[in-house]
Every structure is written in C-alpha cells, then in structure tokens.
Amino acid sequence: MSFTTLTFELTTGGREAAVDITDRCDDFLREAAAGRDGLLNVFVPHATAGVAVIETGAGSDQDLLAALRELLPADDRWRHRHGSPGHGRDHVVPGLVAPHATLPVVDGRIALGTWQSVVLVDTNVDNADRTVRLSFLGG
C-alpha cells in the first residue's frame, strides 16, 4: 500500500466560481497511481469552499452556484459578519458542498461517470486564492 500527496494553488478570480479540476487530478494520478487501483481524496483546506462531482459544460456548474445563491442569500441574516456583505453564507457552503471528495481509481484513472467532473466550488469573493490537496492511496 502506498500513499502520495500533492498540493496545488489556484485562483478563482474573486467571484463565485465552480472550477473544473479534473485534469489536475488526472495529471496527479498519471504519476502517483501509475496504472494501479486505489482511492483519490480531493480536499480544500478552506472554511468557505467545497468539492463537488458534477457535470460541467452544460450549465450544471452555473446551476449549482445559482442554487447556492438561492438557498444561501448574500444578505445580512448571517451571524458571521466580517468581510463582504453576506459573507457569513460562504461559511455555510461547506455544510452543503463538502470540502472533500473520495473517488475510486481503477487502473490509474478516476472512475468517474460519463458526464462527471471534479469541481472546486468557491462562493467567497473575498479570497480568490485556493489550495487543493490531492492524495492517492493505492496498492
């Protein structure tokens, strides 16, 4: 059994974003998994971001952001009040979109469905710099 991990940084642009990181996961696994089976864990060490496995390119990523805006309006209802108006809602997002995902790896590749992608979900416009940790555990 082996364990390999890598972190990388990305910038979401200071706006709500759903950023497809599937290619970064694939690049990592080409070296870390090298044709083996195991598990890929994707983790964002932030209190205001999450990881989703969703379809991208057909509007589902923007639909997810719209649903989060509808469920969690950026207004003054939140007790957590520093930052931009409504920033408290960003701290609730990881309760709905977990800051991690664990995915099966088969023959060195993520075993995603046809239309699935790994996406960093970030609604925090106050912090555009994000870290992602990828970890592979395999035999």
Distance between the termini: 4 Å
Separate helix tally: 3
Q: In terms of quaternary structure, what is this?
A: single chain
The rough form would be described as elongated
The overall strand count is 8
Query: Stretches where pLDDT falls below 50 for ≥5 residues?
Result: none
Structural class designation = alpha+beta
Major β-sheet strand ordering: 1-8-3-5-6
| Portion in helices | 10-25%
Rg estimate, integer Å: 16 Å
Order of secondary-structure elements: EEHEEHHEEEE
Approximately what portion of the residues adopt beta-strand conformation? 35-45%
Summarize the biggest pleated sheet.
5 strands, antiparallel
Mean pLDDT: 95
Short description, anyone?
This protein is α+β, with helices and mostly antiparallel strands and 139 residues long. Helices cover 19% and strands 38% of the residues. The protein has three helices and eight strands, in the order ββαββααββββ.
Describe the model:
It is built from three helices and eight strands; from the N terminus they run ββαββααββββ. The protein has helices at about 20-30, 60-70, 95; strands at about 1-10, 15-20, 40-45, 50-55, 100-105, 110, 115-120, 130-139. Strands 1-8-3-5-6 form a five-stranded antiparallel sheet, covered by helices on one side. Strands 2-7-4 form a three-stranded antiparallel sheet, with helices on both faces. The longest helix is centred in the middle third of the chain and has 12 residues, at about 60-70. The radius of gyration is 16 Å and the shape is elongated. The mean pLDDT is about 95.
